[in-house]
Design a protein that fits this description.
The complex is a heterodimer of chains A (116) and B (113). Chain A has one domain: Immunoglobulins (Immunoglobulin-like, Sandwich). Chain A is 0% helix and 47% strand. Helix content of chain B is 0%, strand content 58%. Chain B is mostly beta strands and 113 residues long. Classes of the chains: A mainly beta (116), B mainly beta (113). Chains A and B meet through strand 5, strand 9 and strand 10 of A and strand 5 and strand 10 of B.
């Protein structure tokens, strides 16, 4: 079974520019998550989708971050405009269902964003 | 109260030694404690997990010890190998909704031959 795919793997932009990340979850996984992992910290959930609906976006900085999951499969995360503190690895994860006991999340390799 | 504190930040162990990583939590509603292993350039992968109804869980060379009264849990890697070199994250969540993972800050483990 193919894992979670993400692109690009690396991105360098200047502050105030825009950037978009793409994620393709494991086939058949209904739930998709975007995490932000700042250097030296654990992943922090930004947004969770169940199919193409948002379940939780309470930690998404909505003034600059947006995400969508069209047709309940692929997802894109956008930052506009980027700030220096957005430098981080952006991880996408998917799981078969939402919630429930021991619902394992499978993570992609991440996109490393550097904002100069 | 949502934090999970993890230590040490980094750990160097000789091949064959025991690696020990500790985590502490405050939210008593947490009842599911997974550990993740992350290799450079890869996303975290679930390694082993424990529920608070047991004090220990072992899978191969990896053991989680859980102390409910102290609200602490730890990962022990026996007979550590160079291939175990990675960053390890503890996490905590509620078993009926494991979407809400609260991660520790991570421990970078290096195992030298």
């Amino acid at each position: 079974e193919a894992g979670v795919a993400q692109s690009p793997r690396y991105k360098i932009i200047e502050k105030r520019q825009s950037v978009a990340f793409w994620c393709n979850p494991i086939s058949g996984h209904a739930t998709l998550y975007w995490y932000q992992q700042i250097l030296g910290q654990g992943p922090k959930l930004l947004i969770q989708f169940q199919n193409n609906g948002v379940v939780d976006d309470s930690q998404l900085p909505k003034d600059r971050f947006s995400a969508e999951r069209l047709k309940g499969v692929d997802s894109t995360l956008k930052i506009q405009p980027a700030k220096l503190e957005d430098s981080a690895v952006y991880l996408c994860a998917s799981s078969r269902i939402a919630g429930g006991p021991a619902n394992e999340q499978f993570f992609g390799p991440g996109t490393r964003l550097t904002v100069l | 109260q949502q934090q999970v504190k993890q230590s040490p930040q980094s750990l160097i162990v000789q091949k064959g030694g025991i690696s020990i990583i500790n985590c502490a939590y405050e939210n008593t509603a947490f009842d599911y404690f997974p550990w993740y292993q992350q290799f450079p350039g890869k996303g975290p992968a679930l390694l082993i997990a424990i529920r608070p109804d047991v004090s220990e869980k072992k899978e191969g060379r990896f053991t989680i010890s859980f102390n409910k009264s102290a609200k602490q849990f730890s990962l022990h890697i026996m007979d550590s190998q160079p291939g175990d070199s990675a960053t390890y994250f503890c996490a905590a969540t509620m078993e009926d909704n494991t979407d809400k993972l609260i991660f520790g800050t991570g421990t970078r483990l290096q195992v030298f031959p």
